[in-house]
Structure formats: C-alpha cells, structure tokens
C-alpha cells in the first residue's frame, strides 16, 4: 500500500507542477517542453523546494513516454518512406557521428581526461535525441521533407549508437573488438531488424486492418498500444533500445494504412507520458555539479551545437538536399539526449570513466534540450541568412546542385552508373580500411617492433620508433592517394550520369557545370570517407596529424572547387543571356506579353544542359511578388529556386541583383529542382 501511495504522490506532483509551468510557458509563447523541464527542476532533489517526487518512479513512467513518442513517430513513417530517405540519411548520420566522436575525443584530451574517458565523451555527444526532436517537431508542426530527413538521420544514429556501445564495452573490458566481433555485432543487429520487420509485415498490417474494421476505437487503441509495447519489449530482450523497437512497431502499424486513425487515438496517452519524460530530464539538473564542472559543460555544449550544425548541414547538402533544408536539419539535430545518459552510465558501470562524466552529459543534454526548440523555430531565418551571405559562386552552385542530383536519380543510365559507383565506393572503403589497420597496428605494436628492430639493427631506442613510423606512413600513403584518385573517378562517373557529354562531336556546353560537379563530388567523397577514418584512428595517434592531413587534402580540393564554381558563374551569365533572347523571340512570335508556353525554354535546356531545367513564370497584376525586391521576396532562400533572368517588355535583365523590383508582366526564368520550381510558383502566385 505504501508503494501505491508513493506512486500516486509522484504522479500527482509531476502532473500538477507540469500543468502550472506549461500554462505559464504557453502564456509567454514559449515551447511547452521548456515548461516540463522547469517542472522537473522544481520537483527534483537538487533545489530546496518542498515539492519532491520519487526519481525512481518518475524514471519508470518516463520510459513509457519514450516508447509512446517513438511509436507515434513510427506511425508517420512507413517502412517504404524510411527506405527512401535511408541511404542519404545514413551517409549524413555517419558523417555527423564521426565528426562528433572526433571532436569529443580531442576535447576530453584537452581537459586532461584519460583516453577511455575522452572516447566515451565523444560517443556521448555523437547521438542526438529522437524523443526531444519528435516532441519539438510536433509542437511546432514541422512536416514535409525536413521531418523525413531528420527522422531518417535519427534512426541511423540510434543504430550507430548500438554499435558504439558494443565496441565501448569490448574496449573497456580489455578484450578489444576484433573484426570478427564487429561483424558478429553488425550481423546480429541486422538479423534482428530483418526478423522483426519480416515477421511484422506478415502479421501486424493484417491484424490492424481487421481491428479497425470492427469500428471500436477502444479496441483499436488497446491493440495498437499493445503492439507498441510488445515491439519495445522485444527490442529490449535482444539487448537493443526500447525506442528502436517502438519506432519499428509504429512503422509496421503504418503499413496497414490506418496510421492516421491510430495516431489520433494514441495522441492523448502519448502526450501524458511524454510530459513525464521531459519532467524526468529536468529532475536530473543539479546546479552544484554544473558549478563544479562548468568549464567542461560550457565547452562541450558549444562543441555539440556548432559541431552538429556544421556536420549535419554539410552531410545533408552533399546528399542532395537544398541549402535551406540542410541548415534546418543541422539546427534541429544540435542536441544530445537519452542515448548520452546510457553511454555515460555504461562507462561508469564498467569503471572506464570517472564519476564526473555522467553529470556532465546530463547537464549538456539539459542545456541543449532547452536550446533545441528555439533553434528549430529560428532555423528558417538562419537558413535565409546563410543563403544571403554565401559568395555568389557558392550561391549559384548551391541552387543548381540539387537539380544535378535530381538528374542523376532520374537518369536512364541510373542502374549502370549505380553499379560502377558501388564498385568504386567499395574500393575507397578498402583503402580506408587498410589505412585504419596500418595506423592502429603501428600504434599497438610500436613497442614490440621497436625492440625487435633495435636488437638486430642497433639504431637506438630514440631513432628506431621514428623509422618505424616513417615506414608505416610510406606504407599508408598509396592508400591515401588511392582514396583521392578514386574520389575523382567517382565524381567523374556521377557527373557524367547527371550531365552527359555532347555526342557526335558537338560542342560540350555542359563542360563547366560538369567540371564543378566532379570536383564537388570528389571533395564530398573524400570528406565522407576521411572523417570516419579520422574518428577511428584518433585515439591511436598522438596530437592531430591525421586531422592536418585530411584538412590539407580538403583545402587543396576546396581551392580547385572555388575556381570551378567561379567559372560556373560565368557560364550562368551566358545562359541567362540565351534565356533572355529566347523569351524575347517567343514574345515577338506571339505578339503579346502572355506567359510563354511550358516548352518555351525547351531549346535552351537542350542547348545549355546543367543550368537547372529553367522554366518561365509570368507575374500577373494580383501576384504578391509585384512591387517587392528579390531580397524582400527571398525566393531562393525560401524555395531553393534561382531567378536566372527577367524579361520586361523588350528589355532583359541578366542575373538580376537582390535589389531588383518585380513588376506586373515580368517573365521570370527560374532554375532549380522540380520541387523548388513548384514551390517558387506558389510563392509568386
């Protein structure tokens, strides 16, 4: 009876205080998540306020919140949709996790922490919080492509987190993790996912369709929540995150086609226990520990926010998303959460870290949780600002890059190109694996090899290690060159797939766009391969020579990219001149100022491939764009489409400036992806 009383007291305290703080934050027009965290801080054990809830009971209830939040998220993403965003989101997640593990490791070493403590720190800040982002997106009604990209990245991050925990356990226990152990861990995870999804697809959609046909909402709710908790329990039984199991359960229910109805029924229960989860996060905030470790907390918070914004934005952009969407994704993922607590707790239980790491992880998570809703809310204006501040050549490249990737995805040669790309990517990964083996092997075996050589050659214990390191560097150098060269070949194959060369000896007018695309793809591929190698080998290399080598390589390719992007700017101006002439000729042919037919720029697209599939749009008297400058309209920042040229009567405007005022009757030539152009047409009215 005493346990029941304690449970009731904890639940009543949590919900009553959360209700008051939520109303307060709604009146202040602030995210309610912040109100929940404040409620947790008030009823937590660390402040002298006589409102204390049992942390154990609250933590148990918060687990239900995590499960239901992830289940609701899965209802929005059927497996088909998840597989569509999976490849691009997976690359972005690998880049982001690699960058953060490396940054966390060097930050820990800078504070004088041990190698293991620094490694755990890097892993703690690598995984973003799916639960926090899901709640913030629901609260701010974020939908569409941005939500799909972010959720795909989060799911892959959770899978990476599982692998990181397995490797950290092996390293901390002193057994190490061989290639066989890693392959077994990955295979076991893959078998679990394939088994759960395969059996689930056979059972769950049929069951949910049968239940919903009964037209009994109560039965539908009980069945769907039962499936949710069954998936979470199954994942936990196999040693994986309950969040992963709940998300997959939601995706399986969504395959039935009844996801919207189930989501509507589950929402009140989800909101109730989701509030308890965020209250539990607030209860972990300890002002005394924050004061004690304030320097590490401040530095790691900055590393999390800045590192995740940059790494996710770059990864999302290179995988084919526009500037706006990429920057918004980076701002959305700039926090850590529940996985960080798990990894920090693992280090504590394995006695691999000091007691300081867990409260530091909690504090960084709490602070970044507080900043997340504001960053998501500000992501649109920040993305617009970034777009405006980019140099003109980068603006041109960014606006066209998405259309080139779209061309590649819809190319009739996609299967042939895909096979060659997979083969080249495999060769790059093999080169990266050899570099990793050489670096780790040299680091681990250096004392034994040095002693062995010194006994036979007598070079001295000071000189011999440097000779061994030099030989290892010489051995690794061909593989480094191989990655750069294969990245170039990969870029050439992809660029030719997106922008085929002219046939029959004709002048190749796509040469300038293809050249910049080749260099950009080479830069992206070397970055995507080099960063994970750097993250894996950093614990075995004293100092930052690996980072210097990677940065120098990227710098050289970056210089070549800048020259190519500058040449592309000139190509675009020539294309704009051709477009203006085509529009003028069409106007003379029709003898009026009506909007040109849909294929008026077809000849231009054939003559100048690579300028973004231009389409023309006429501004009517009622258009909301009339009388506004392009800067005020912010068309490129809002939609990703670029205004290549404007035809106004008999005069043409070549690549108009941001201060160009639009008038009724103007005909705008737009370039970008089909989605961007459609969005721009909606804005232009």
From TrEMBL:
Q: Could you tell me which InterPro entries the record lists for this protein?
A: Cation/H_exchanger_TM, Na+/solute_symporter_sf, RCK_C, RCK_C_sf
One GO MF term: monoatomic cation transmembrane transporter activity
Per UniProt, the keywords (alphabetical) are: Ion transport, Membrane, Potassium, Potassium transport, Transmembrane, Transmembrane helix, Transport
Tell whether Secreted is among the UniProt keywords. no
A single GO BP annotation from the record?
proton transmembrane transport
Localization recorded for this chain is: Membrane
Q: What is its main location?
A: membrane
To which protein family does this belong? Belongs to the monovalent cation:proton antiporter 2 (CPA2) transporter (TC 2.A.37) family.
Put simply, this protein is called: Potassium transporter
- Organism, by scientific name, is Corallococcus exiguus
Its taxonomic placement starts with:
Bacteria, Pseudomonadati, Myxococcota, Myxococcia, Myxococcales
């Amino acid at each position: 009876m005493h346990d029941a009383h304690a449970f009731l007291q904890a639940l009543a305290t949590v919900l009553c205080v959360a209700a008051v703080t939520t109303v307060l934050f709604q009146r202040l027009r602030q995210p309610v998540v912040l109100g929940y965290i404040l409620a947790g801080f008030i009823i937590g054990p660390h402040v002298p306020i006589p409102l204390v809830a049992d942390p154990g009971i609250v933590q148990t209830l918060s687990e239900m919140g995590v499960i239901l939040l992830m289940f609701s998220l899965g209802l929005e993403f059927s497996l088909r949709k998840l597989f569509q965003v999976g490849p691009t989101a997976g690359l972005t997640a690998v880049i982001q996790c690699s960058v953060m593990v490396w940054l966390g490791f060097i930050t820990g070493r800078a504070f004088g922490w041990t190698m293991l403590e620094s490694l755990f720190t890097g892993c703690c800040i690598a995984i973003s919080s799916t639960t926090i982002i899901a709640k913030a997106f629901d609260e701010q009604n974020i939908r569409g492509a941005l939500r799909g990209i972010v959720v795909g990245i989060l799911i892959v991050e959770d899978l990476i987190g599982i692998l990181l925990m397995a490797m950290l356990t092996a390293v901390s226990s002193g057994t190490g993790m061989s290639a066989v152990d890693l392959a077994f861990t990955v295979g076991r995870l893959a078998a679990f996912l394939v088994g759960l999804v395969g059996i689930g697809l056979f059972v769950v959609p049929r069951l949910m369709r049968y239940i919903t046909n009964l037209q009994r909402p109560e039965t539908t709710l009980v069945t769907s929540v039962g499936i949710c908790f069954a998936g979470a329990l199954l994942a936990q039984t196999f040693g994986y995150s309950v969040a992963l199991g709940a998300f997959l359960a939601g995706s399986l229910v969504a395959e039935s086609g009844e996801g919207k109805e189930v989501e509507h029924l589950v929402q009140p229960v989800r909101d109730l226990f989701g509030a308890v989860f965020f209250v539990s996060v607030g209860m972990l905030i300890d002002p005394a520990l924050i004061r004690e470790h304030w320097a590490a907390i401040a530095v790691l918070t900055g590393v999390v926010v800045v590192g995740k914004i940059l790494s996710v934005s770059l990864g999302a952009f290179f995988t084919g998303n526009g500037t706006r969407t990429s920057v918004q994704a980076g701002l959305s993922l700039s926090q850590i959460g529940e996985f960080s607590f798990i990894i920090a707790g693992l280090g504590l239980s394995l006695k691999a870290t000091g007691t300081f790491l867990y409260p530091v992880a909690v504090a960084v998570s709490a602070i970044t949780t507080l900043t997340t809703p504001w960053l998501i809310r500000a992501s649109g204006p920040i993305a617009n600002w970034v777009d405006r501040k980019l140099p003109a050549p980068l603006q041109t490249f960014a606006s066209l890059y998405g259309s080139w990737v779209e061309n590649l995805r819809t190319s009739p040669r996609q299967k042939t190109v895909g096979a060659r790309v997979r083969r080249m990517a495999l060769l790059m990964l093999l080169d990266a694996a050899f570099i990793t083996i050489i670096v780790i092997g040299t680091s681990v075996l250096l004392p034994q090899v040095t002693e062995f050589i010194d006994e036979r050659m007598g070079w001295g214990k000071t000189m011999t290690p440097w000779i061994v390191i030099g030989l290892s560097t010489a051995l690794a150098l061909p593989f480094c060159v191989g990655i750069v060269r294969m990245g170039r070949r990969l870029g050439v194959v992809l660029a030719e797939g997106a922008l085929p060369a002219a046939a029959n000896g004709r002048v190749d007018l796509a040469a300038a766009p293809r050249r910049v695309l080749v260099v950009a793809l080479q830069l992206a591929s070397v970055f995507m391969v080099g960063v994970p190698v750097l993250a894996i080998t950093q614990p075995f290399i004293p100092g930052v020579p690996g980072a210097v080598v990677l940065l120098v390589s990227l710098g050289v390719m970056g210089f070549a990219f800048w020259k190519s992007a500058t040449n592309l700017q000139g190509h675009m101006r020539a294309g704009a001149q051709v477009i203006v002439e085509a529009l003028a000729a069409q106007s003379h042919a029709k003898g009026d100022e009506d909007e040109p037919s849909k294929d008026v720029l077809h000849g231009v697209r054939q003559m100048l491939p690579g300028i973004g599939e231009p389409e023309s749009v006429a501004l009517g008297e009622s258009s909301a764009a009339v009388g506004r400058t392009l800067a005020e309209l912010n068309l490129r920042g809002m939609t990703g489409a670029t205004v290549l040229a404007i035809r106004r009567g008999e005069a043409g405007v070549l690549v108009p400036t941001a201060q160009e005022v639009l008038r009724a009757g103007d005909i705008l030539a737009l370039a970008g992806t089909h989605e961007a152009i459609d969005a721009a047409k909606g804005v232009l009215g």
